[in-house]
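User: For my dataset I need records formatted as: sequence, then structure tokens, nothing else. Please produce one.
Assistant:
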Amino acid sequence: MDKELIAEGYAFSEWMRNVTPEELAKYQSVSVMVNLRTIEVSSETQSLFVEFDIGKQFCNFMGFVHGGIIATMLDECIGATAFTRVGRGFRGTLKTAIEYHRPIPAGKVHGKGRVVAETDRDLTIEAQLFDLEGNLLADATSTVRYGAVRVRPTEVPAEA
């Protein structure tokens, strides 16, 4: 992996450890929506631990958090873990598989993300959501792309 990307990943890890909710709001409106708060970031283990505080407005008619919001929380764990590893070298998610294990009521949920595999351009990241007692609520495995942006030349039509 590019040494510059590794350095950016470490810098992002430090930023994630110290970011305030107000500062985060400037950058990531989705993180603010799900009330993301970083608890721990580890460059050594390539993992992070966060907390979400989900409002009742994100619950379905049965009183449980909507599946799309659960997917969003898992994706926030995945994205933050990728940025922790490769900084601005993170290019985007290629695929994600989600398993829902238990209904989630509004309130606090813990999230964990960690890199489980790496190639020269992709990371495989696992994310998990837990209730405050440590019960697994949902998990996801995602493949994300990192590295330099490749720009393909395009033809510009000649003016008539």
